[in-house]
Amino acid sequence: MTHVLNGVTPLTHLGIIRVEGDDAASFLQAQLTQDFSLLGMSEARLAAYCTAKGRMQASFIGIKRAPGDILLVCSRDILATTLKRLSMFVLRAKAKLRDATAEFDLYGLAGNAVAQVAAGLAAPWSRVDIGQASIVSLYPADGQPRALWLAPAGHDVPSAAALDHASWLWGEVRSGIAMVTAPVVEAFVPQMLNYESVGGVNFKKGCYPGQEVVARSQFRGTLKRRAYLAHAGSALQAGDEVFHDSDPSQPCGVVVQAAGAPAGGWDAIVSIQITAASGGKLALGTPQGAELSLQPAPYPLLADV
C-alpha cells in the first residue's frame, strides 16, 4: 500500500542563492547545465553546477523573479561553498550573488495540498505565481503530486494540513530526483543521476564548465552508471558505498540520498554501475553488508544517442 503524502512542511534543509543584476541570466547561462537565458516566468529549471571534469558540485532549482533577479534553491549544507565558488567567476558581469535564505520562506506541498494551494499547476518544473508566492511543480512521489512553495519571508504560510518533514524527505527519495549534498559533492556527472532525463541538462545551449565531459557521456556511449531507487532494512545515508557480489573488491556505486520509509526500513536513490543493476546481490557498506533491493527510476530515461 502506498503511503499517503498530504500537507505542507517547511523545507529547512534547503537554502537560496540570489543572483541579481542585468547579467544575472547570462552569468548563470555560462556556469550551469541548463538554459537560463530562455528561462520564463512560468517555469523553473533543474540545473547542475559542474567542475571542469563534469562532476556535479551543486544542483539547483532555479526561478526568475524578475528579469534581473534569479533564485537558486539548493541544499543548505553546500550553499556557502557553492556561493563562494560561483562568485569567483562573476568578474566583470553585472551580477551580484548572496545567500538569501533568510529573505524567503520555503515550503513543500504534497498530495491534495498542491491543488488546494495552486490549482492548475501542470507538469514538473512548471510554475504559477499567486501574489508574491511562486509555486513550482516537482516530480511526483509514487504518483502523489509535490510542489515547492517560495515567498518573501513573513508571507502568509500555505493553508493546508501539516506534513512532517521526515515524510517530505522520503517523498523526495521516491520521486527519484536527487539533489547534491555535502557527502556526494563531485561524485557524479549529471547523467549518473539521470539529470538529462528529468530536465536538468540542455544539450543545445552554450558552453559551461564540464560541458565536453557531459556531452561525451551522452553522445559517445561512455556512461556506465545510472540512478535507481533502492530499499534496505537498515539505515542508509548519502555517501554510503554499495557493493555487488560479482566483484566484492570495489564498490559498484554510492547512496545519493536516503530517508526512512514509513512502512519500515530505508529507501534511497543510489547511483550504481548499469551492469550491477541487471542482477545479483547488492550490499551496503561492505560486501557482507545489509542487502539492497533495487527498483528502476520512476520516470522514463532518454534513449542514449
Describe the structure.
It is globular and about 55 Å long. It has a six-stranded antiparallel β-barrel with strand order 11-14-13-12-15-16. A five-stranded antiparallel beta sheet has the order 1-7-10-9-8. With 305 residues, it is of the alpha+beta class. It has five helices and 16 strands.
> What's the CATH C level of the largest domain?
Alpha Beta
Number of domains: 2
- Would you list the SSEs in sequence order as H and E? EEHEEEHEEHEEEHHEEEEEE
Mean pLDDT: 94
Architecture of the largest domain in CATH?
2-Layer Sandwich
**Count of alpha/pi helices:** 5
Rounded Rg: 19 Å
Q: Report the portion of residues in β strands.
A: 25-35%
Number of strands: 16
Largest sheet: 6 strands, antiparallel, barrel
CATH superfamily of the largest domain: Aminomethyltransferase beta-barrel domains
- In the CATH hierarchy, the third-tier topology of the largest domain is known as Alpha-Beta Plaits
Helix content range = 10-25%
What general form does the structure show?
A: globular
Terminus-to-terminus distance: 37 Å
Strand order of the largest sheet: 11-14-13-12-15-16
Structural class given helices, strands, pairing?
A: alpha+beta
- Uncertain runs are none
